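the two lines:
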Amino acid sequence: MAKVQVLNVAVLDNPSPFGNPFQFEITFECMEDLPEDLEWKIIYVGSAESEEYDQTLDSVLVGPVPAGRHMFVFQADAPNTALIPESDAVGVTVVLITCTYRGQEFIRIGYYVNNEYTDTELRENPPLKPDYGQLQRNILASNPRVTRFHINWEGCAEKMEDSENVDPAPNAMLPPSCTPGKAPPLGLVPDNSMDCL
Amino acid sequence: MKLLKPSWVNHNGKPIFSVDIHPDGTKFATGGQGEDSGKVVIWNMAPVLREEDEKNENIPKLLCQMDNHLACVNCVRWSNNGLYLASGGDDKLVMVWKRAAFIGPSTVFGSSSKLANVEQWRCVMILRNHTGDVMDVAWSPHDVWLASCSVDNTIVIWNARKFPDIVMTLKGHTGLVKGLTWDPVGKYIASQADDHSLKVWRTMDWQLETNITKPFSECGGTTHVLRLSWSPDGQYLVSAHAMNNSGPTAQIIERDGWKTNMDFVGHRKAVTVVKFNPKIFKKKQKNGSTPKPSCPYCCCAVGSKDRSLSVWLTSLKRPLVVIHDLFDKSIMDITWTLNGLGLLVCSMDGTVAFLDFSQDELGDPLNEEEKNSIHQNIYGKSLAITMESQLSSTIIENPEMLKYQQERQGNPNPNGAQGSGPENQTHKLTNVLNGESLEDIRKNLLKKQVETRTADGRRRITPLCIAQLDTGDFSPALFNSVPILPGSSASTQLTPQISSDSSTANSLGLRPSHDPTTTSPNKTAEENKESGTAPVNSIAMKSTLLLTSATKIEPMKALDSRFTERSKATPGVTSVPVTIGITPLDRVKDGTSVKEPKVKDETSSDSEDKIMVKSLSMAKRKGEMEGGEVVEKRKKGRPRKDAKMMPVSQPFPQTPVSVEKEPSRIATPVVVLKLPTPSIQKSFSTQVGTDSVTYLEVENEVSVVSGARLSQLKWSREGREWDTLLPSRIIIATGSSDVVAVACEDRTLSVFTACGRRLIPSIMLPAPMSALHCSGHFVMALTASATLSVWDVQKQTALVKNESLNPILSGTDATVSQSLLTQQGVAVVALSNGKTYCFNSSLETWNLIADKQDSLVQCADFRNCLSSQDALGSMGPLALTQGRNLSAGRLASRLSSTPHHLQQGITLAFLENQLSSTLILLSASEYRHWLLIYARFLVNEGYEQRLRELCQDLLGPVHKSSSSSWEPTVLGLRKRDLLTEVLPVIGQNLRFQRLFTEYQDQLELLRMK
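prediction for all of em together
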């Protein structure tokens, strides 16, 4: 079971001009003291078509995290407009907040973002080259999409990831029940599988 | 009877597999399938019970929902005290939940339902052991154990007082185990499985009591669950799915002989669940009619795959009521309210139904006292002593008594049947915000929060702690989680009730930003940071854009996958584990409460180093001695630090077993009268006492001086050492903290002080030495001619003089299997026939103190008089001779037909034997141990006369009189102190409150004098 539960994410400064920094006030609860920091990231999806245009707006370490309920505001700069395909600048896209512990992502919170001109004239006749100064960003805060992943809270991520790049030879020694390298399937407690890594 | 289907109790249409009403009747839990996980929901009972509450929007219906289970939840069960909820699911886990009070309601973030959790239930323990879906869980009476059964064919008994300890795994089923029920008397647990069997297990030794297969032979494994139930009087066990003449039944199994002569017939499909009403009823007395003595009866609800529910009274031949078509799918679980008049049923179709009976229909429920008297009549046990509910019927007359009663019940007093709701719960969680409202904090959070940079330039935010978790009693780890605040005293750190202003809370974990770090810089993060904040001129337009038009939604679908797509960890991300990047020292200075594994690592490796050093020196020592000779086996007998781990009851120990407080020795096996002296070795070494630092080394014929061969005795302790030479070869060398004794081949015994000074000229023994022990300043010698001598070398007197072992050996072919000397100088000799004797020098008699074949020992059952500390409390010569696993009623279960009064007598006799044995062994700590058990037994079983006599002896005469021969102490313990310890035990049974008050007052009087 996840040691960290995200209780709430409040979207601050919303809607706001396109160039304003993103601000998310995140409240989470931790079951027990975490020996390591949490890493939070804001990823701006530049284009729905390809991951290529994903921008990590910022990543931040959060810690120390003793057991209890905590909150913080994660502020990150607006996306670099140079990296956004011009055709995708206006319209609906997505911003993702992810959190990883020991290199393993355990929660992904997605928000739809609508970028629109506030000016009716511009809205009807959008310029070919997007005018970011006139764009307004509206995050659909009421409808977050939350995906939770089961991770190994005790073990180190490096082990899990390393094994992906390990020679097949040592893995040949593993019992057949152990699938090295893969994130544990849902419902499987990874503690056991760690033994053979 | 009223019937209600509260439609608001649902899992969004998903099946509900389990339902259970909280013992206080204010709420109930459901378990089943959630959206993509298992789901446990806690609901308010009031809207079910009262229509006006259902309509009142201010009364919450849903109290809490938990989606922590990874897969479908098959069973939810409240503990009997109402403090915990256990849930088991397809994710193979059992979770134990406890109410935690946070600063306010919360929602499950991101879930579609916007219902707030009114109560916060937190998972305090995850029990992992099963390798398959957990199908049923059950708390034992008094919440001592929690049992869970699984499709892995096992039943696991968890220690509910010390999760996640496993008491026992019951193996024997060869099919999926789908139901569990405890005997209300606590003697058995029954399980039903797909292997066409119902098994009853004893809680005494966790062995199979009976295996019932006949009624199930025709059954197919078609039901999801097989929830069986035990009647509240303990007399009947009713199974789920059984077959009789190819018709589905619920089999009734009688406790007496496990006979299967009756069944509940009528359901058209398999019975999935049987649930007995917790109350025992008696016929409602009609006004005016003469009260006829009527037999009490039980009430039982049966649910089936045929979607119907039947309710039966054991006094009627036909069901009281049958309700068809209550659900669209199979009934999965049934729960009764504690008052016995309400019933909740849940179904696979995702709905629940509530049945409300009147007393006219069911009868008059017996109160707890009457129920207990039934139990007492049948089982002879007064269960009442541990039942809080009975207290309400007795008036407590003495404030001290009240105190003990409250202490016994523990702090969280579960509400009675009409408990007044959630506000009774203890709110252990504290708000660390100290006056500042959450809103104020949120306004300034961005400015206030502490942000630092790690050495590689990464941002690090210290989150603001807005609430601490309460310290759940299952999670000692959380105890350390209270932040150590600057200036707060140690005592406040121990309590969770710390409050500090938010800035202090903020500053915890604040650290200088020049933390040394080993991380490689995360490039992307840095670049993004350096791109700087250039706010584009903002147009403050407040038009909220709603994404409603179809054209706008379309691209979102393309994006949907992006939400769930798991990001592949980039190399930059994998460096997270190192990014803490602070040395342990820094952390310590900062005084944060975060556990620092590095610190731990260091300390542990440090201690390992020490161990290494130790073992190195050990190896060295070994090397010194070796020289081609056999290294004495005893060398291995290094005492363990942990007394608990010691093998105490080795019948024929080859190596000396040393006990923490009892530096007594156990000798090598000896055959009496046949010169069974230990063979002479060239060299050997032994340890002295319990401290691992003192050694005796013997080297025989070490040097030849003018034709005479000399043997060397060497004593060493932490570098200090002495040696002495003896003219004859040494057979046995032993020592205590005070003396060292050496027996030589020439039948002499030499005694030295711990510093090597000879105390007595060589003692000439009548026969070669067979066993030699030292303890304190006592020396015990057992010679080959089967005589025993004990000397006090300090006072230079003989306590036992060449006493023959004939009285205990004659007529048997037994030999001495072990011997020891207690610290008080009492010699104890154990024979190979299982009997153990000690020699009492004032009576000059051999006294039998332990007998492994003694039927009293095997039949005495005093386990319910043992408290948890007792298990460890009895270290001493008696425990050593009797063995730790002193059956404790091991055989009692086999004599289950033994009438209770006989067992009572057996136990009483046994306990009195134990007490007198500890007295003769002069073992004070054990005397105290057994005295308390004895007192508890007397209290439990209601032996008032003996209790009074015991108290009188402990109290002694209140007025001093010269004629009194009363000794104020026993074995160095003050009797009145013992009485002070015994009184709280007496205080636990309200029956004895007069006795309690009487002696409490007299003790008080004596204290005043």
